[in-house]
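Quick one: co-fold with DI6.
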Amino acid sequence: MTRTLWRNARLACFDGPQPWGWVEHGALVTEGPVLAWVGNVADPPGGRYDAEHDLQGALVTPGLVDAHTHLVYGGDRAAEFELRLQGASYETLARAGGGIRSTVAATRAASDEALFEATARRARALMAEGVTTVEIKSGYGLSQHDEARCLGVARRIGRELPLSVRTTSLALHALPPEFAGRADAYVDAACDWLAAQHAAGLVDAVDAFCETIGFDPAQTERLFAAAARLGLPVKLHAEQLSDQGGAALAARHGALSCDHLEHLSAEGIAAMRSSGTVAVLLPGAYYFLRETRLPPVAALREAGVPIAIATDHNPGSSPTLSPLLMLNMACTLFRLTPEEAWAGFTRHAAQALGLSDRGRLAAGLRADFVVWDSQHPRDIAYRFGGPNPCRRVVFGGIERSPASSPP
Ligand code: DI6
Ligand code: FE
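Sure, here it is.
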């Protein structure tokens, strides 16, 4: 197995008692796809190395984990953006059959190859800023055939790009036109599809949009029961536009994460604390929809609920492909500390996906890490819109090079 030494690095490990898991004079040893050793450069383990890299004091962090994206879809929503600027609200457009449903029409019309190419372009943009693991939801197919197609595209991204992909089935994203006025029948259908998706190896987790313009708590609960019968973990788009009690419901089902959470109540926070559910905050959607109600960051912090940050990339409410901009917005808009924001895109993001083998730099974990043109991660959270500081990315022990262009 290839044994490689990466020395003379500043490490932000997000592991151990130090703030940032900081190691000022650090080194890493990879053995094949695994971190064999992480620590102080003064005492790297001896033995023979197949390769050695001197990082000249550059910052090394875990590979970023984007724990919430809707990467597979056709078309865009730039025209809807213009309508919103003229005064139409996101909810009004959705109720009028636009919004998510307009993207569903464009997705159904796109060929497998076109969907794959569009998704791969988006995935590469995330990779260029250091993402090594991404969660990808379905939710723009909304038929058995098209949901499976979208999940299949997500799986193919994980096979063909140097990127780990976790898939999430989100059939309960909006009501498709052929089920108009028959939401409960659609929920029944979606529960049936789940078994087939699971049998085909297409699903790692199950999600729903629990909202007045989405699905109600009882419908969400039925989907979660179907997921439980298949042994699939759940997560929820909860309390984004209103308080539906979705977070407490998801927590009762042992949810991995509850996401958005601008309208989260004290009861929701208590329930998430007891179930160990991660709060995934999405500053891109907050910004782009010009929300004014902030997620209850101080209360989440006080309760010790782990906080993750993600892009929520989607064409309607968060068309960003910049995890680094989200780090900055998590600080400026949500008042997270730079260390919290970074932990939110590494350690806690991995936790939000139920993955304990990544998100930190520690012996025994996956060798997924990023070398930055920076001396400290706070510097990266501070800047926005400038040159990309991502210099080198190691994915499963293999350098993905150059990080910024297609592999
Ligand atoms: N909440 C969101 O912010 C995205 N999905 C969801 O449930 C928006 C999806 C879209 O507008 O296309
Ligand atoms: Fe989302």
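If it helps, The CA atoms of residues 60 and 371 lie 5 Å apart.
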